[in-house]
Amino acid sequence: MAKIECVFWKDKIGGEIERRETEAFPYGFTVGPHGEWEMVIAEEDKEVKKNELVNIKIGKIELPPKAIVLPCFIMRHALGVVSSLAAVGKAKGVEERRALDEVIFHPFADGKVSKGDLLCVVNIFYAATERRLARGAAEKWLRERYRY
């Protein structure tokens, strides 16, 4: 078990930052044989400059519980690549339903990204978590579950 501090944007990317301390446990996962490809499409026009990261609104991508997102490492947009998919607010566990509505875009050249442009494609895989109960985690779970 490790005590970690999650740092996230509270209201918008580049906006107010919030910190929350929590406990984290390492665990593994098994990925099933089926997945989906999801297109990441720009929802706004944005001027971009070479090597200046910029956030771009995208069409909402709904992630069901226990789904993980992995990039499809084939460049899709001529001006740059998607460095990260994002959503503001407190981080949610993989067991919860999540939604992504913005990307961090790394431009290779100056230009304009237009609404409707395909920015990239992501792989969505369904996973089963395999929690390894780290030392002390089982005791903590039992204490919280069976409070006397």
What does this structure look like?
With 148 residues, the protein is mainly beta. It has one domain (28-132). Helix content is 6%, strand content 56%. The chain has one helix at 137-145; strands at 2-9, 17-24, 27-41, 46-48, 54-63, 67-71, 80-86, 98-107, 111-113, 118-131. The chain has a three-stranded antiparallel β-sheet with strand order 3-10-6, with no helix packed on it. It has a three-stranded antiparallel β-sheet with strand order 5-8-7, with no helix packed on it. A hairpin with a 7-residue loop joins strand 1 and strand 2 (17-24). The longest helix is centred in the last third of the chain and has 9 residues, at 137-145. The radius of gyration is 18 Å and the shape is globular. It starts with a strand and ends with a helix.
What's the number of domains?
A: 1
Give the terminus-to-terminus CA distance.
23 Å
Tell me about the biggest sheet? 3 strands, antiparallel
Point out poorly predicted stretches: none
User: What structural class do you assign from the helix and strand content?
Assistant: mainly beta
Number of DSSP E strands: 10
**What is the overall shape?**
globular
Number of separate helices = 1
